[in-house]
Amino acid sequence: MTFLHKLAQRLARLKVALLIGLLATLACERPVTAVLNTALRVASINVSPAAASVPVGRAMQLIATPRDSTGAPLTGRALTWLSSNLNVAAVDGGGLVTGQAPGAATIAAVSEGVTGTATLTVTNIPVASVTVTPVTASISPGQMWQLTASPKDANGNPLTGRVVTWASSATAIATVNVSGLVTGVTAGSATITATSEGQSGTAAVTVSVVPVASVTVSPAPASVPVGQTVQLTATPRDANNNPLLGRVVTWVSSNTLVATVNGSGLVIGVATGSATITATSEGVTGTAVITVTVPPPPPPAGTCPNQPGGLTTLTDFDFNAVLPVGTAMPVGTSGWAINNDLGWATRVVDASSPGTNTAVGQWRYPGGDSRIAGGAPATMYRNVGAPREVFICVWFKISNPFYLPSSGMSKLFFQFFQSNQMFWYFDGRNPGDHHTLWLRMETGEAGNRAPNVSDVNLTWGVWHKFEGYLKYGTSPTTNSIVRVWIDGTLVEDYNNVTFMNDAGFGEWQFSPTWGGSLPGESPPADCFLWYDDIHISRP
Questions:
Q1: 470 near 481, Cβ under 8 Å?
Q2: I need a labelling partner for 106 at 20 to 30 A (CA). Which of 145, 158, 335, 416 fits?
Q3: Hey, CA dihedral for 299, 424, 361, 434, is it positive or negative?
């Protein structure tokens, strides 16, 4: 082989080696790969729709599109969804948004640290219709009937929490209150309309007069002493014996020389004998036979026949001193004091007083004056020295008429055990109850005790004698005693009373509270309570 030929072969092999080395060197550098990675990063996220509205309880789908720096969409990237106010709108992991309550919220989609948002407004579903049930109703005057309104959406689904207003087309025939309670007024027809967000529904109400089929008079029969009263009640009823409201009732006595009756059914015994009291409504009558008896003689004036032996008189006060106006004012030298800021307690003369003289204490409940609500005209009080046994005797008279507050009760006397108390009251919440004296323990056993021996009428306009005996037992919480006599008759005899503490009997009060009455309440006219001949004794 010639020299030139060998040289050519060597040059060819060297060229190939140089080419391979150059390629190897290029392969060690990766600028192309770096450019590709930068292009595939998430640079922005588009959420669509960017602003949307959805009703409460409804859902809508949001779409998030991650994009690279050139704006090209990227697929397969993980997304996280967030709501700025979960009380307004909730969003799940797939971008499905549900309205929770009216308001606005920002919904965010996050991928690789980049965020895109949409603004969502949640609105109430509009009321499309209002359904009133029942659609028709028939009632009588004075009868009430409950209607119900249901606002609904366009698909007939009930909507809750919507404001509904009610109106009657003829309030002279039927009225309706804010809750849809309809009251019949007089015969006729009326349309009751319920409106919510401009949409209305109606019910047709017919008011018709149901005829009176019978009249029930109670109590029947009844007995009343001469000079005292008994309250009768008449109830008109339909053919099914249902009571009928708002009917006119007239009263008449068959013998006014024996018993009279006024327009409200209050019977007064005039002389011994019997009389038939008739109540008439729309030509239908009911009756009650009244027997008028000889009244029991009152206890002798100035005596307290039921006082136990072994007690010593603490005070006998017959109102021989004036009742001063002011606070904590002494009443003469009797040991009594009075809070009488308004001057509603005074000493007056009552010729009918059974006491030792005609001077009595008068507590006035002023008509039309709301300052009396929940309070007493005045409070006269005396410390009894904390004994474990005490006896109280006093005459009292309730005016006729006496106007009770809405609570139906009025208090007479208080006995205090340091800061705790018990009191007696008369109650008029049910017909005839104002004739009964009740005992209430304000704390301790905190309950009412009715007469448990006999029930003596507290006749308004007549003097009655109250005698009360209180004694601690071996333990104040087990076997303490309370006994009460009215006009010499034992009415309450309890030997299991729970007293409030073991401090003894502290203070006796004449604080005849009118109530509990509502704020602003007052009697329609003046009424009164009188006291006379107060006697308290203790060991």
A1: yes
A2: 158
A3: negative
**Positive or negative: CA dihedral 167, 172, 176, 177:** positive
366 and 219 within one domain: no
Q: How far apart are CA 207 and CA 273, in angstroms?
A: 45
Q: Sign of the C-alpha dihedral, residues 409, 412, 414, 415? A: negative
Distant-in-sequence, close-in-space partners of 508: CB < 8 Å, separation ≥ 6:
381, 382, 384, 390, 392, 413, 414, 415, 416, 536
- Residue in this structure with the two tokens 């929490």, named with its chain if needed: 161
Sign, CA dihedral 421-427-429-433, equals: positive
Does one domain contain both 195 and 219? no
Do 184 and 266 belong to one domain? Answer: no
Q: What is the CA radius of gyration of the chain?
A: 45
Residue type, 110: V
pLDDT tens digits, residue range 287-318? 999 999 987 665 555 678 899 888 899 999 99
Q: What number is the average pLDDT over the span 41-52? A: 93
User: Does the bond joining 219 to the residue before it have cis omega, within 30 degrees of 0?
Assistant: yes
CA distances from 188 to 138, 207, 208 (A): 10, 5, 7
Does residue 6 fall inside a structural domain? no
Give yes or no for a cis peptide into 151 (omega within 30° of 0). Answer: no
Highest average pLDDT, of 240-244, 447-451, 513-517, comes from 240-244
Per residue in 74-116, pLDDT tens? 998 999 999 999 999 999 999 999 999 889 999 999 999 999 9
Instruction: For residue 276, give Cα distances in angstroms to 42, 139, 228, 342, 536.
Output: 103, 34, 17, 46, 44
CA-to-CA dists, residue 389 to 276, 483, 537, angstroms: 48, 12, 9
Question: Pick from 123, 156, 190: which residue ends a domain?
Answer: 123
Instruction: Mark whether 185 and 245 lie in a shared domain.
Output: no
